[in-house]
Design a protein that fits this description.
Length: about 210
């Protein structure tokens, strides 16, 4: 009961606006893609491009599917646990879209948390949480903090740390062309923020796989 209340309160404050605006218009996207093809001087009616607008529309619908999902659905605690040591889930693959260029950024998300009262969440649920926020128009910084804050507010662990390393194709395919350049962002909440030793331990486990 208490759990449900907390989830619905969270939904009401954070996600109501987004959920009201959750339709995807494939025809409209396809029209836009056709204009891009024309705009670059290509012929949208030549054979190889004829179905491209629809294909791209489907792709963008899939890459923004997280806008039409409720992230709180993934934070269902597994009860009956005594575990109160740090949990780290490494190398969750993420693919997102940079909101400045609509270009993909891809990388790895690492999530660490310290459970309270034995409340833990399944590994696959953490991956789904990351995916729900990744599949939107994003900034890597915001993606990192949305994953961390949602886990922190809904699971109520003692601390949460999220680290994302990603390659932004808007950076590596154009402009400065720094192929392979990684952007690293982190969000640190609760106990990890207060205790530098725990934070260092989590960071070491994430980056090297070994405790300090
Ligand atoms: Zn960009």
């Amino acid at each position: 009961m208490r759990w449900q209340n907390r989830v619905s309160k969270y939904m009401a404050t954070k996600f109501l606006d987004q959920k009201q605006n959750n339709k995807v218009d494939l025809d409209l996207i396809a029209q836009g893609v056709r204009l891009i093809i024309e705009g670059i001087g290509e012929d949208p009616d030549r054979e190889g491009l004829r179905d491209t607008p629809e294909r791209v529309a489907d792709m963008y619908a899939e890459l923004t599917a997280g806008m039409r999902e409720d992230p709180s659905e993934h934070i269902v605690p597994l009860s009956g646990n005594k575990h109160d040591e740090m949990v780290i889930v490494k190398d969750i693959s993420i693919a997102s879209l940079c909101e400045h260029h609509l270009a993909p950024f891809v990388g790895k998300c690492h999530i660490a948390y310290i459970p309270k009262h034995g409340n833990i969440v399944g590994v696959s649920k953490l991956a789904r949480l990351a995916e729900t926020f990744a599949r939107r128009l994003q900034l890597q910084e915001r993606l990192t903090s949305e994953i961390a804050h949602t886990l922190f507010e809904l699971l109520e662990p003692l601390g949460v740390m999220v680290v994302i390393e990603a390659e932004h194709t808007c950076m590596t395919l154009r402009g400065v062309k720094k192929s392979g350049a990684m952007t690293v962002t982190s969000a640190v909440l609760g106990g990890f923020r207060k205790d530098p030793r725990t934070r260092a331990e989590a960071m070491a486990l994430i980056t090297t796989g070994k405790a300090t």
